[in-house]
Amino acid sequence: MTQAIAARKIKLHDLKVKFRLQQVDDEDFFREWFDELPKLSSVEKQALDRIKNNYFYLLEYPVMESIVKMVVLSLLLDLAQFYEPPFRVSGETGIKVSAEDQGEIIQGSIDVLVIQEQLWVTVIEAKNSEFSITKAIPQALAYMLAAPNSENPIYGLVLNGSEFLFIKLILGEIPRYATSNLFSLINRRNDLYDVLSVLKQFRNLILERLRPSD
C-alpha cells in the first residue's frame, strides 16, 4: 500500500535515502549565486532599504508567514521582474513526488511558485521568522524534486523573513544540489542587495534559455 508523507514533515536524510539526493560542495557547481551578478540601481537599493526598515519595525510584533510574503517576498519578486511576461506566479500549488520502489509519495503545497512554460524555475518557501531556516530546506527540495523538466537547473529560495538561502538542484538519475551562503537582515549591510541581484541573475539565465537558437 502506497503511503503519503507530508512534505513539511520530510527530513533531509529521507530525501537522500529515497531519491539518492546528493549535496555538492564544489563551488563551481553553483556559481550563479555569486559570479558576475547584475548591478543594482540606486532606486532599487533605496527600495530594498525601505523593505529592511519596514521589516524591522514589524519585528516589534509576531511576524507570521503572511506578513513575510507581503512585506518582503512580494516586493522582492516585483523588483526582480518575476511578475512580468513571460513569467507567471502561482500560489499554494500542490505537488506529488514518488520515490522509486519505496511505495511512498510525498505530498504538499508550495507557498509561492514562479512558473514559465510549465517549468518550475524558482521555488520559494516563506516560513515563520522564529523558525530556523534549515527546517525549510528539506521541504523546498522535496518540491523541487517534483519539477517536470530534468534538463535545466532548478533554483530555489528559502527564507524566514530575516534570513535567505538559495538552492540549486540538477535532476537526473542521481539528483544533486548545493546551497549558497546565508544572507541575513541582521547584518549591518543590507543583504537584500545580494538577494535581489541573485534573483535577477536567475531571471536572466532563464530568459537566455528561452531565446531561439540561431
Describe, in plain words, how this protein is organized in 3D.
Helix content is 31%, strand content 28%. The chain is an alpha/beta fold and 214 residues long. The protein has one domain. Strands 1, 2, 3, 4, 5, 6, 7, 8 and 9 form a 9-stranded mixed beta sheet that branches. Helix 4 links the parallel strand 5 and strand 6. Helix 2 runs antiparallel to helix 3. It is globular. The N and C termini lie far apart (50 Å). It comes from Crocosphaera subtropica (strain ATCC 51142 / BH68). This is Restriction endonuclease subunit R.
Helix/strand layout:
Layout: E1 3-6, H1 12-19, E2 22-23, H2 42-58, H3 65-79, E3 88-99, E4 104-116, E5 119-126, H4 137-144, E6 154-159, E7 163-170, E8 176-179, E9 183-184, H5 192-210
Parallel strand pairs: 1-4, 2-8, 5-6
Antiparallel strand pairs: 3-4, 4-5, 6-7, 7-8, 7-9
Helix pairs in contact: 2-3
The helix/strand order is: EHEHHEEEHEEEEH
Overall spatial form: globular
- The total of beta strands comes to 9
Distance between the termini: 50 Å
Overall mean pLDDT: 79
Task: State the helix count.
Answer: 5
Structural class based on helices, strands and sheet pairing: alpha/beta
β-sheet strand percentage: 25-35%
**How much helix, percentage-wise, in residues?**
25-40%
User: How many strands, what sense, and barrel or not for the largest sheet?
Assistant: 9 strands, mixed
Rg, rounded, reads: 17 Å
Estimate nothing, just give the exact number of structural domains.
Answer: 1
Low-pLDDT runs: 117-123
